[in-house]
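INSTRUCTION: Work out how this chain folds

Token vocabulary: learned, describes local backbone geometry

RECORD BEGINS BELOW THIS LINE
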Amino acid sequence: MKEDSSMEVRGIVVVDDDNDIRKLIADFLGEEEYDNYEIVIVAFEDGEIAWQFMEECGSIIDLLITDLEMPKMDGRTLLEKVKGEYPEIKVIMMSGEKVAERIAKEAGADRFLKKPFKLEQLRMVVQELLPQALFAFL
């Protein structure tokens, strides 16, 4: 990530109750190169905490990556709240559950990733969903 005080700040929110997955995704996206923007990656362990953050900072968020099954507030509820309040935010739902892809589509997810997935698959989906102007490597 380039450090420049004149850069516009944009955000990606990662939500998963599995600490290892949450950290892996956040670290991976944090290592990507972004042009003209300072990208902040914020990670949460459940949808309830993530929603509280997004209520305050939703206007700078471009992408939400969320697990389906989580305690307190699940990914479907979070997705529906986000799309209701911030329809411009792109959402990737992820899960290892067999019925999760159907649930994700019904709830309005922009993309679905079946766990386990390769980080390169995540990169391709993120590049597809976010404005190309964000990426230095495109």
Summary: The mean pLDDT is 88. The first strand starts at residue 8 and ends at 15. The longest helix spans residues 19-31.
